[in-house]
Design brief:
This protein is 36% helix and 20% strand. It has helices at residues 4-14, 23-28, 49-62, 115-124, 141-147, 154-157, 192-196, 230-242, 255-265, 286-302, 314-325, 327-330, 350-364, 390-409, 428-431, 434-447, and strands at 19-20, 42-44, 66-69, 86-89, 97-101, 106-109, 127-128, 164-170, 176-180, 205-212, 214-215, 219-227, 251-253, 275-283, 307-311, 337-344, 370-373, 378-385. It has a seven-stranded antiparallel sheet, with helices on both faces. A five-stranded antiparallel sheet has the order 5-6-10-8-9. The model has no long low-confidence stretch (mean pLDDT 96). The protein binds flavin-adenine dinucleotide (FAD).
Length: 462
């Protein structure tokens, strides 16, 4: 519980209208997409970078914990105020696109800008901001950078980190730092921006982002490959990429997802369909798109595809993507609760990884439908349990731990997109050795010696 004198001081610093400690605000800011609840003691809406600096100086001096927050759409608890203190919410004031620089093809934004708002602003001038997490309509760019968010287009265009050219941030002692430049080349000094990307609000508060834009491709078409088995589809993924395919997206759905799409949504798919690959190809000239589709069709068919469907119109494209967009809600036919992890392995390991993940599921007696971004090796693995059955939940978590161990053994990672937060913190020692974890703690200490910024996240001390 925060002493009321601190609430008053914070109001003096940033204005009465920007500091709240009433119950309604505490409840509203106690959630993220994990649906776990931790109430803060106050919610503060900084008006600008100077406010952020003033708040951090005050809190650092008084040992008040701060949790930076974008839209609270995180899947791993990063924005949850697990130690109380204040939520520093960027969405109210620090939500402006400051500049779109056509010549250098960059956008300068405040951290509370919604991802889709930048995509639209870029498109209006013929440019393109590719990172597109499925939460693009509400997640913020500050949150995206702090989690290094990925999306459907990662196979061709990469992820958030590939678009961060520079940033401004405030350290817990109030120091305002700049990292990176509006230049393609910059090798002066440590890559501080690189350290802050994916740091989940544990090192500094991001206050301004300079993001790379690229020319908008003129043509896009969607495709779907239908395969008899998961193995065939997985082989087709890396074989087609090795053959020169460069799809924007290559999304995978396994036999269980295919079953769920048919049963729950009535989607028509062949009787013997055992896996799907759905995606887009794009290009600046239509021939480029046709060339890509040819490579994919040839490669898919050489690797066992029963059918290759091309969507020629926007309506047909929506129809193909409908299956992928509904993969997640449809699989609840296998259990009321999904223990969902976003593991990532080198693409060539996907067939073996999936085979062994299903074996783990079988051993525990759980269905494990899998779908996701096969083009970049990032798969959503869903251990389906009865959410009202404590024993099943416990067993499900054991299965998850085994899956993490397997993935790390195969050269993969605990998280391809969603970060560590609190949910995956207990598994950090599977992925990192003592020396690496010590380095993480040392980096944290260098930025935040008093441990006021988002303590206890990413396996760091509370
Ligand atoms: C339906 C749904 C679909 C999703 N799909 C995807 C997907 O396809 N790909 C993907 O990668 N993720 C996805 N996510 C997860 C989530 O949307 C992303 O992690 C997103 O980047 C979080 O942004 P946010 O603004 O909601 O951040 P929050 O959840 O508010 O915060 C996330 C983390 O960033 C920190 N943070 C936020 N702003 C700042 C700042 N200014 N300075 C310092 N730290 C800050 C917070 O402290 C926290 O640790 C999805 C979530 C949902 C609910």
């Amino acid at each position: 519980m925060l002493d009321p004198k601190h609430i008053k001081s914070l109001k003096d610093l940033v204005g009465e209208e920007n500091v709240f400690s009433d119950k309604a605000h505490m409840i509203a800011y106690s959630y993220d997409a994990t649906r776990t609840r931790f109430e803060p003691d106050a919610v503060v809406f900084p008006r600008d970078e100077e406010d952020v600096s003033r708040i951090l100086v005050y809190c650092n001096h008084h040992g008040i914990v701060i949790t930076p927050r974008g839209a609270g759409s995180g899947f791993t608890g990063g924005a949850l105020p697990t130690s109380g203190g204040i939520i520093l919410a960027m969405e109210k004031h620090m939500n402006k696109i400051l500049e779109i620089d056509m010549e250098n093809m960059v956008a300068v934004v405040q951290p509370g800008v919604i991802n889709m708002d930048l995509q639209k602003a870029a498109e209006e001038v013929g440019l393109f901001y590719p990172p597109d997490p499925a939460s693009e309509e509400y997640s913020t760019l500050g949150g995206n950078v702090s989690e290094n968010a990925g999306g459907m287009r990662a196979a061709k265009y990469g992820i958030t980190k590939d678009y961060v050219m520079a940033l401004r941030a405030v350290r817990p002692n109030g120091d305002i730092i700049r990292a990176g430049k509006r230049t393609i080349k910059d090798v002066a000094g440590y890559n501080v921006a690189g350290i802050l990307i994916a740091s989940e609000g544990t090192l500094a508060v991001l206050t301004e982002l300079t993001l790379k834009l690229i020319p908008k491709p003129n043509f896009t078409k969607a495709y779907m490959g239908i395969f008899p088995s998961v193995d065939d589809a997985m082989n087709a993924v890396f074989k087609s990429l090795a053959a020169g395919a460069n799809p924007v997206a290559m999304e995978f759905m396994d036999d269980l997802v295919v079953q769920a799409l048919k049963e729950k949504l009535g989607i028509e798919l062949p009787e013997d369909a055992g896996a799907l690959l759905i995606g887009d190809v794009d290009g600046n000239v239509s021939e480029e798109v046709e060339f890509q589709l040819e490579i994919l069709e040839r490669s898919f068919k050489e690797n066992g595809a029963q059918d290759f469907v091309i969507a020629h119109t926007a309506k047909e494209r929506d129809k193909l993507w409908y299956a992928r967009r509904n993969a997640s809600p449809s699989i609840t036919i296998f259990g009321s609760k999904k223990l969902n992890e976003d593991i990532s392995v080198p693409r060539s390991m996907l067939p073996e990884a999936l085979k062994r993940i299903y074996e783990i599921g079988d051993r525990y007696g759980f269905k494990v439908p899998c779908f996701g971004h096969a083009g970049d090796g990032n798969i959503h693995v869903n251990v389906m349990v009865d959410g009202s059955n404590e024993k099943q939940l416990e067993e499900g978590h054991k299965a998850i731990k085994e899956i993490f161990e397997l993935v790390v053994e195969m050269g993969g990672t605990l998280s391809g997109e969603h970060g560590i937060g609190t949910s995956k913190a207990p598994f950090m020692d599977i992925a990192f050795n003592d020396a690496e974890l010590t380095l993480f703690r040392d980096i944290k200490k260098a930025f935040d010696p008093n441990n006021i910024l988002n303590p206890g996240k990413m396996g760091l001390p509370n």
